[in-house]
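An instance follows:
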Amino acid sequence: MNFCMRRFNTFLRLFVVLALAAGCATGKKEDKLLAALRLHIESAANAPGNATTVSVLRSEPMLVTITSEPVLTEANIVAAKLMETPGGFAVEVKFDEAGSLILEQFSSANPGKHFALFGQWGEKLKEGRWLAAPLINHRVANGTLDFSPDTSREEAKLLVDGLNLAAKKNAGLTK
């Protein structure tokens, strides 16, 4: 009996050590590099109460009046990707089923208007600004939005990596 208790204690100690080691591994710096993305829709300039005018793009600022509340957020993102384009790079964001329906509804109901995208990235989301204001020229039915962000390639990579990490964490919460 005494022999069985020692073996049990050894296994218990080994389990506790492994559990503590695994718990310490989740505090990696990469886990803290989250990102946020808020997609707003252009609104009428005279909309009462819930419209805000923002300046998008730094090199050639453009004023866009948007709804104060975002229509989509990083909570709706399934994956993000940095893509090479002839002019440089772009970000592709894939939304979940609910986000895809919302994107389709807003893009089909608002041709000729703009989406305005606000992004935050880095440790504690300390970096952030209005990234793009793509023109809505067709219905987006596939749940994917591509845009050329007003960022450096390094900032765009941090944004994409953070969005993918946030999407992974959101998927873990919903399952």
Remarks:
- The chain has a mean pLDDT of 84.
- The chain has two domains: 1-28, 33-174.
